[in-house]
Amino acid sequence: MRIDPDAPFAAAARATLVVRGPELLEFRDGTLDGSDIEQLHSMRVASRRLRAALEVYAGCFPRRSHARLLRLVKGTADALSEARDLDVQIDHLTAYRDRVPHAHRAGVNSLIGTLRERRAAANQHLEPALARLDADGFAKQVDDLVSDR
Amino acid sequence: MKARAVPGLDPAGPFRANAAHIVATRLEELYAFDPAIRDPANVADLHDMRIAAKRLRYVLEIVGFAFGEDGRQLEAEAKWLQEVLGEVHDCDVMIPEVDAHVASLRDGDRDHLLANDCDPGALARAPNGTFYIGLEGLVSYLEARRIVLYREFIDHWDRQLASRFRERVEAALR
């Protein structure tokens, strides 16, 4: 994505959203599949990039439709973050456990077990949050914002 | 922490001028946490400074290219701050998490003792007896790690202030 620093701010806003909008949907199937935690990470990165773009360019779009899209993106990002944060915590604790004396491992494993239960619960929030992208017409909202309809 | 509004943005105006306004506001937000972050016990300020670094980083991911090498360096700086303060925050979150887990294990062992007429000998068969040492060790580790991370952060921050990095970036924004 190339933006001319002398171009109008609003033109840069549209050019950015055209790219960052569809990126959010690229990793959705992999995230729902759940077998590769990096898919969820990539979708989270895409969501925070899109959110940042919407916040930077807030003044370039109609207020109500911009607020509606931002709310949808924030909701998606929150659900992704909840699951991703737990993945990272579990990952760190597992690496820690493998380095501590044997007598310490059972306790760390008990904590990892609790976090895994919470991670499974986070998945229950993830599915409806991602389904909302279709239900709320995410792709159309992006298109409308970019074309200023 | 709510982001400060950026006054004076003009959608019809040039990208670079608008971007400079936003970066300057986010930069000011970041530096406003000093001196509060000089006290390592100020958990909330350290966390909010991480959020400010994150906001600055993401803004620069979008607009930083317009400020050349200074923009790239500022983005790298914001990323570093976000990450080290993120690790400090992880310790601050995890320590009470472990404490709560220990408390719930203790509840289980208490119930076991109640079911055994409060016989101390029953502790030999308590369901969670083998877990405590690892969890106490984990808290000690997290406390030690937080001290190391905080020192790393504040040493870096002081070096950055001494190098007048902020002044150079602000000059590039003009």
What does this protein look like?
The complex is a heterodimer of chains A (149) and B (174). Chain A has 149 residues and is mainly α. Chain A has one domain (9-147): CHAD domain. In chain A, 83% of the residues lie in helices and 0% in strands. Chain A contains six helices and no strands. In chain A, α3 (37-56) runs antiparallel to α4 (63-97) and α4 crosses α6. The model of chain A has no long low-confidence stretch (mean pLDDT 95). Chain B has 174 residues and is an all-alpha fold. Chain B has one domain. Helix content of chain B is 72%, strand content 0%.
Order of helices and strands of chain B: HHHHH
For the record, the CATH architecture of chain A stands as Alpha solenoid
Termini distance of chain B? 27 Å
**Secondary structure tally: strands of chain A:** 0
Rg calc of chain B: 23 Å
Number of strands of chain B: 0
Q: Total domains of chain B, how many?
A: 1
**Structural class by helix and strand composition of chain A:** mainly alpha
CA-CA gap between termini of chain A: 23 Å
Low-confidence stretches of chain A: none
When the domains of chain A are counted, the total is 1
* Biggest interface between chains: A-B, 34 and 36 residues
CATH class of chain A equals Mainly Alpha
Shape of chain A: elongated
The assigned structural class of chain B equals mainly alpha
Outline of this structure?
Chain A has 149 residues and is mainly alpha-helical.
Please name the defining characteristics of this protein.
heterodimer, A: 149 residues, mainly alpha, CHAD domain, B: 174 residues, elongated
Map the helices and strands.
The complex is a heterodimer of chains A (149) and B (174).
Chain A: H1 9-26, H2 28-33, H3 37-56, H4 63-97, H5 102-135, H6 138-147
Chain B: H1 15-31, H2 43-63, H3 68-114, H4 132-162, H5 165-173
Helix pairs in contact in B: 1-2, 2-3, 3-4
